[in-house]
Write a structure and sequence with these properties.
By secondary structure, this protein is mostly helical. The protein is built from 3 helices and no strands. The longest helix is centred in the middle third of the chain and has 13 residues. It is rod-shaped. The mean pLDDT is about 80.
């Protein structure tokens, strides 16, 4: 591990940055798979709405 000794205007008050966005990338896929498991309907575009679940053309 190494440290870079320079000022970063985007860092927090303790000098750290969050990486929470990295873990959010798989949430949409997980929700879509949960909807498929619960309903048997595969919705491939977001947002997942009741209309898309009930539409027979999807």
């Amino acid at each position: 591990m190494s440290f870079v000794d320079e000022f970063d205007p985007h860092a927090g008050p303790l000098g750290s940055k969050g990486i929470g966005e990295l873990s959010a990338t798989g949430i949409a896929a997980a929700v879509a798979n949960a909807v498929f498991d619960a309903t048997g309907r595969r919705v491939r575009d977001l947002p997942i709405t009741p209309k898309k679940l009930l539409d027979p053309r999807v």
